[in-house]
Amino acid sequence: MKPSLSAAADALHTAEQAWAAGKPQRARPQLEQALDLLTRLRPSQDRDALLARTHLGLHQLSEQAGQQGRSERHLRWGVSYARTAGDGAVRTYAQEMWNRWQSHSRQ
Question: 81-103 pLDDT, tens per residue?
Fold first, then answer.
């Protein structure tokens, strides 16, 4: 598939719908596809916002699967992309996830 923001956004949307429907196993391949498409595109604020959401979704799935190292890596990437994206909602969401992770890792 040729990389494009719209194809990546569609894959991300499908993953978010699967997650909301309680089917996280269906979300992972869609998130992986979005990640693959987005990493092949030139940097932009829109791309970075989508990358942040994708990495944060992969963080949640990895955390749920008990893959702590992978989960932390995706969280760090998600927070980093959220900061460069300039999207206030994505940045706030990433910061909330970071704060929650920080409070759990200290326990």
Answer: 999 998 899 999 999 999 999 99
What's the confidence (pLDDT) of residue 107? 63
Three-state DSSP state, 88? helix
Backbone angles phi, psi at 76, to 5 degrees: -60, -45
* 92, 53 contact by CB (below 8 A): no
Residue 34 Cα to chain centre, angstroms: 9
Quick check: 20 and 46 in contact, CB under 8 A?
A: no
> Contact 72/101 with Cβ under 8 angstroms?
yes
For 63, the 3-state DSSP assignment is helix
- Domain locations in the chain as residue ranges: 25-35+42-105
Question: Looking at this protein, which amino acid is placed at residue 84?
Answer: T
Q: In which residue are the tokens 């956004």 written?
A: 9
Q: In this structure, are residues 91 and 85 in contact, taking their beta carbons and an 8 Å threshold?
A: yes
> What span, in angstroms and rounded, lies between the C-alpha atoms of 48 and 107?
31
